[in-house]
Design goal:
Elements lengths: L1 E3 L11 H10 L2 E3 H8 L1 H22 L17 H12 L1 H8 L3
Length: about 100
């Protein structure tokens, strides 16, 4: 079976020999028809369903997923302050290099 492109509005001129051989050797069909008949959508849905079932079973068997979260402690500094402190204490050199005028 050969896949062919559908002509938009005009018939595509083919030599007489190739028209005769294409009909005799194999049936041709366009890509959309091939994909509709091949079951690609059904196969994709089956793979997605199997993946969802596996994820559900793995998460269901985790003992850590069944435990409640511990209570959060109160922070003395906010997150923005912590991020700024971390950046300027551990990564000070890249900030100095960026600040140098060219």
């Amino acid at each position: 079976m050969l896949l062919t492109r559908k002509a938009a509005s005009q018939a595509v001129a083919q030599p007489r020999l190739s028209r005769g051989l294409s009909g005799a050797v194999a049936k041709t069909m366009d890509r959309r028809t091939f994909l509709k008949r091949s079951g690609v959508g059904v196969g994709g849905a089956a793979v997605a369903l199997v993946l969802f079932i596996q994820i559900y079973l793995v998460v269901g068997q985790l003992s850590a997923a069944k435990q409640p979260f511990p209570p959060l402690g109160t922070a003395k500094m906010d997150d923005v302050h912590n991020i700024g402190f971390l950046l300027f204490s551990n990564y000070n050199l890249p900030f100095q290099i960026i600040g140098v005028p060219c």
